[in-house]
Specification:
Length: 332
């Protein structure tokens, strides 16, 4: 069989991965999984949200119920299998494991088992949906680092970032299954996840693209064209018309609560609410902790949006989202 194209979105949460993934979900032949990493945790009630983007429980969804059967051992219940998968994720593909995964030419038995599960998962998704391109907004750089060892796929990487002060502001909000987080904690994760993402994209520069969320909302159609070029899809399939995209139903695993919305959606150009609402202290904390990367990503007082793509609803504020984390409260 021809290898599947997998575009893995990596970076920290609340950076717009849900809306970008759902836009790509409208491209013929593409399918957005949402944050696939959390399927096994969420499906059996141990995550923050057990619903598929289609509105059904993950265990009842026609798609995910098939996927959840993959890899279940003889005599093992689906719940026991899911618990085993989550334990393996905690032990092998948390953010802190990124460099270790990259250094392994031959994966450990545990990593090889996880790679085999991902291979079965992606192939089951493709068989069920007819998609030849799968967009996985899992965001864990360690899992992104494992993809070259996943049989039957051709991995590409989107390193997506957003101003850490805007991210900190987003984490102050409570939204459905979203819980708040302090500016210090969110920015510490921002730094760790982006450093891990850089390790992966520097290893595979010809298959990687760096994108600021601010540049996406400044020029959404042009940005999507760049993403389509990366994965070898014709620009004529771009579903964005100026600033509007017609979103259909999706089968996303967790992500921005706005993933449940569908219909014509306006991608707003502005993203500066944080400048007025985030406290001076929180801005200072976020800037201080993120300082090593802020200049590199062109975030500062005078930063202005411009399309910056590099290789090495109704109207929605697309990036106000949250990701679950492996383990109890930490994804690193």
């Amino acid at each position: 069989m021809s290898p599947l194209t997998v575009l893995y979105v990596t970076g920290w949460c609340r950076s717009g991965s849900t809306i970008i993934g759902n836009v790509l979900n409208e491209v013929p032949g593409c399918f957005h999984t949402g944050e696939l990493s959390f399927l096994w945790k969420n499906a059996h009630g141990n995550g923050s949200n057990t619903l598929c983007g289609c509105g059904a429980q993950l265990v009842d969804c026609a798609l995910w119920s098939k996927v959840l059967q993959q890899g279940v051992a003889s005599g093992e219940t689906p719940r026991e299998h899911a618990e085993r998968v989550v334990r393996r994720q905690q032990d092998t593909v948390r953010t802190r494991h990124t460099l270790r995964v990259l250094r392994q030419d031959t994966p450990t038995p545990a990593l090889r088992e996880h790679a085999e599960l991902l291979a079965k998962t992606y192939r089951t998704i493709s068989d069920a949906t007819g998609a030849s391109v799968i967009v996985d907004s899992g965001k864990f750089p360690s899992e992104a680092a494992l993809l070259p060892h996943v049989e039957g796929i051709r991995p590409y990487y989107l390193h997506l970032v957003r101003d850490p002060r805007a991210v900190a502001h987003s984490w102050t909000k409570t939204k459905q299954y979203v819980v708040p987080m302090s500016a210090a904690r969110s920015t510490a994760y921002w730094l760790g996840f982006n450093v891990g993402s850089e390790l992966v994209t520097r290893r595979y520069p010809e298959r990687s693209l760096f994108l600021r969320y601010e540049d996406f909302i400044a020029e959404p159609a042009a940005t999507v064209d760049s993403l389509l070029s990366l994965i070898g899809v014709e620009h004529s399939k771009n579903p964005v018309h100026v600033r509007t995209v017609n979103l259909g139903k999706n089968h996303t695993v967790t992500g921005n609560p706005d993933r449940f919305l569908s219909g014509p959606t306006l991608l707003r150009a502005g993203d500066d609410t944080w400048r007025k609402e985030l406290s001076t202290r929180a801005k200072a904390v976020a800037s201080a902790l993120a300082w090593p990367l802020m200049g590199r990503y062109r975030y500062g007082r005078a930063s202005s949006p411009s399309l910056h793509v590099v290789h090495p609803e109704p109207s929605v504020n697309a990036a106000d989202s949250r990701s679950d984390t492996f383990g109890t409260g930490t994804g690193q």
